[in-house]
Amino acid sequence: MMGTLIRCTTCNAIMHMTEGDFSPHYTWNGGEIKKIEMDDRKAFLEKHKGHNTEHLTPLTPPISDKPYNEPLKTSYFEATNGNERFLIKRWRTKIEDPFAYEIIEGSIKLTNGTLRIQTSAIKKQLQAEGDSLISERKVNSFIQAVRAEVELLDPAALAVSAEGETPLASYYQLGSSCVDRILTRCRDKFTQHELNKLRDFINQHNEYADVMTVVSKKEFAIKTRVQKKDSPEAVHPNQHIGISR
Ligand SMILES: [Zn+2]
After folding, report:
1. Burial of 194: CB neighbours in 10 Å, binned 0-12, 13-18, 19+
2. pLDDT less than 70: residues of the chain
């Protein structure tokens, strides 16, 4: 996150100062392009004249359950003045508006969520490779073996191989010992030739976000320390925000 965050300690108000705040804005006015000297920082400082202000440093990237390329989403991040931690809400209602910022009570709590295998993508890829040696019944046995092993994995111990479409989704590679255990589970139902083919298949599709990588769906919650009952902006304690995929 580029720019500087300034907090008015008197009002608990916040502004994000970017390079854009110092450059002129242009409008179309009666057939002429009009240059308007805009200085959002000046406006903020004017409004909070005589108040104490301080700089905040972001501690976390903005987190949201919406895709990275969704321009109108609400995100949350944490920042510090060196002593205290602040939870900041960032949003905008129109694409041409600058982001609005507000300090809210609470902190971000991330859970590792669940791991999911890409079942239909694995089936499609096996079909696409035209392997008639592996029957549909055997494909299902393979899927079951993968799922059983992935259920035993600890999401916190896995290395991310690709980021998902939202800050809450990530892809993880299967480790070589996990691959071995999957094939051990398949041993009774597959011939050695088929097991070799399965090992090649896993290794060929176990990178970036390919079909054998597993998807983690994290959740985040805003942990509220003090709940303001009458505030329309109050965030409910432990509000869980999942992701839809
Ligand atoms: Zn102020």
Report:
1. middle
2. 1-2, 18-40, 130-133, 225-245
